Amino acid sequence: MQFIHMGFTDIFRKWRPKGKMYSLRCNQCGKGFLSSFALEAPVCGSCMQKIKSSDSTIDYDKKCATCGNMGVIHAKTQCYSCYFRLQK
User: Could you tell me which residues are beta bridge partners of residue 32?
Assistant: First the structure.
C-alpha cells in the first residue's frame, strides 16, 4: 500500500506545465501572477472579478469625466474603458 502511495505523489512532483509560463504584474493592483499566455494588458484573478462585477453596475445617467461618454461605473466618475485604461 505504501509503494502505491509513493508512486502517486511522484507523478505530481515531476509534473511541469507544458509550454512557456510568464511572470506578469497586474495593471490594476500591481500583484504578480503566473500565466501561460503573454498578455498585453495583464489582470490578476481578483481584479478580473472586480471587472466582471462592475459590468452590471453602470450608471447611464452620468457622463464620464475623462472622455465624456454617457455611462459611468457606479460610485465613480469614469466610464468602464477609462477606469480600466482600455482606451487607446
Answer: 25
Q: Which residues contact 71 (CB under 8 A, 6 or more apart)?
A: 58, 59, 60, 62, 64, 79, 80
So what's the pLDDT on residue 24?
A: 92
Helix or strand run (H / E) with residue 46: helix 45-54
Residue 8 pLDDT level (bands cut at 50, 70, 90) = low
For 71, the enclosing helix (H) or strand (E) is strand 70-73
Residue 11: per-residue pLDDT: 61
Q: What is the rounded distance in angstroms from the CA atom of residue 18 to the CA atom of residue 63?
A: 46
